[in-house]
Specification:
The longest helix has 18 residues. This protein has one domain: Alpha-Beta Plaits. It starts with 7 loop residues before the first strand and ends in a 5-residue tail after the last strand. The relative contact order is 0.31. Helix 1 crosses helix 3. By secondary structure, the chain is of the alpha+beta class. The protein contains three helices and five strands; from the N terminus they run E-H-E-E-E-H-H-E. 31% of the residues lie in helices and 39% in strands.
């Protein structure tokens, strides 16, 4: 199944200075391990269609990388659920996760955009 208009998402954009990047990446790795444990691309667990995390240095001028970087690192965490109830299943399972308060703390400290239960509005 491919991503379709109307499906539910989490999309988080985080920004950290280079000194805080290890803290953010440790939280992302812990979250990814938890996702692997409780989510799948089939219907054996909470069903995802798409999960990935991207990372990039922040450029002074994104259209001209030769102008260097700001010293910040940007992260994008993206999840698309096969069915709308996947969002509620995810949140219910997260409440049982011991690391959840710490992960939320990282999102609150470094989150620039936090789309929770968003709707896919365009896709190919």
């Amino acid at each position: 199944m491919s991503v379709q208009v109307g499906q539910k998402t989490f999309n988080f954009a985080l920004k950290a200075n280079i000194a805080d990047a290890p803290k953010v990446e440790a939280a992302i790795q812990t979250h990814a391990a938890w996702m692997r444990e409780h989510h799948s691309y089939d219907n054996s667990k909470i069903q995802l269609l798409h999960f990935y995390v991207a990372k990039s240095n922040e450029y002074n001028n994104p259209v001209d990388p030769s102008q260097g970087t700001t010293g910040n690192v940007l992260y994008s965490i993206n999840e698309v659920y096969a069915y709308p109830e996947g969002i509620q299943q995810h949140m219910g399972k997260a409440k049982e996760w011991d690391y959840f308060p710490s992960f939320l703390g990282v999102l609150q400290q470094f989150g620039q955009v936090l789309v929770v239960g968003g709707d896919v509005i365009e896709t190919l």
